[in-house]
Amino acid sequence: MKSWERLNAAILACQQCPRLVAYRQQVAQQKKRQFRDQTYWGKPVTGFGDRNARIVLVGLAPAAHGGNRTGRIFTGDSSAQTLMQALYAVGLASQPFSEHRDDGLQLFGVYLTAVCRCVPPDNKPLLDELRRCLPYLVCELELLPQAKVLVALGQIAFNGTLRALQALANSHAVDWRLPSPRPKFAHGACHELPDPRGGTLHLLASYHPSRQNTQTGRLTVAMLTEVLAQAKRLAGL
Q1: Which pLDDT score, from 0 to 100, does residue 1 have?
Q2: Structural domains of the chain ordered from first start
Q3: Cα–Cα distance, 110 to 221 (Å, whole number)
Q4: What is the pLDDT of residue 174?
């Protein structure tokens, strides 16, 4: 418990990226007309979910008027609704919506996190910003030893997850290498990889449940549900 508390305290206090600090605060002050009467979180966002998780879902970053407003990852925006509908459909969430921090949502065997803890302008974190955030994801993987299935939501999350696994191996002084050819992002792809902590793990890929993807039909709830159902099977849940 203390390790989780230290990690989350470090995330909440983080000010390593001046551009992101300025932007998250700007969004919190300007707000969206729809939420003008609400007090925005306006800080980095920690992970959320089951700390005995066997599945880790890795997203991109808090949404400007989602996680940056509510203070919980994948909460209060359209991406959250799509993801929760899919998680609920396969029995990994207690309800098909994620609206605010006190809405009673529970995740079963699943932990949600992201490769960037602050909302980035245009949803595009810089490489240096991703590098500064990387240790937080590495630490979460260290604290989730039962997690043997990683689901990356989008290509940036996919690449960040691979970097986190390499960093985790380095921290354990493990000679860990990606298979050749290097795993590539594609919706529905499933890669079996050596686990730096021992054994093997599976890395699954899905398009991110962003409005851009769902409104164009690039990703549907059914498509995401299929990926999560596979993750559940692989995790033995």
Answers
A1: 59
A2: 2-235 (3.40.470.10)
A3: 18
A4: 84
The sheet carrying 200-206 orders its strands as 48-49, 110-114, 55-59, 149-153, 200-206, 190-194
Over residues 111-124, the pLDDT tens digits come to 999 999 999 999 99
Residues belonging to the chain = 237
Count Cβ neighbours within 10 Å for each residue of 118-153 and write b for 16 or more, e otherwise: bbbeebebeeebbebbbebbbbbbeebeebbbbbbb
> What is the DSSP pairing of strand 149-153 with strand 110-114?
unpaired
Pairing of strands 200-206, 149-153: parallel
Q: Say how far apart CA 107 and CA 68 lie, in whole Å.
A: 20
Backbone angles phi, psi at 93, to 5 degrees: -140, 150
| Residue 179 CB neighbours (<10 A) | 10
Q: What is the pTM of this model?
A: 0.96
| Cα distance between residue 66 and residue 205, in whole Å | 22
DSSP state of 12: H
